[in-house]
């Protein structure tokens, strides 16, 4: 198989694998009572702490409008709060509340188990290799 055809095959296989894995992960998130965007924002805050809304948008790859809407919903549920930046009034941060931390302390271990089971089709070594290769592919694609 030539380079072009192998590249096209890789693209299709990568897209299909991503679709299936994400469908299963999103199903798990929804079973926990959160949309994928809500879960992703809470997960980011859980692991990274207070984060600007702009940075959240960049990290979870959704539009600023979606971030605003989702943050509004999470704030109404009491899982996060907005914090103004004291140095730049244009910047607003999201910060997890105690209720949000308690919720995620309960939800995240089971979600991590689900993700682990989705990835169990690969050995530990294959996971490391796939991670390295996908990073390399992503960095290269960013240059174009």
TrEMBL record:
One of its GO terms (biological process) is response to stress. Transmembrane segments: none annotated. Residues 4-139 form the HTH marR-type domain. Pfam families: MarR. Keywords: DNA-binding, Transcription, Transcription regulation. GO terms for molecular function: DNA binding; DNA-binding transcription factor activity. It comes from the Bacteria. PANTHER family: HTH-TYPE TRANSCRIPTIONAL REGULATOR MHQR (PTHR33164:SF56), TRANSCRIPTIONAL REGULATOR, MARR FAMILY (PTHR33164). This is MarR family transcriptional regulator. It comes from Xylanibacillus composti.
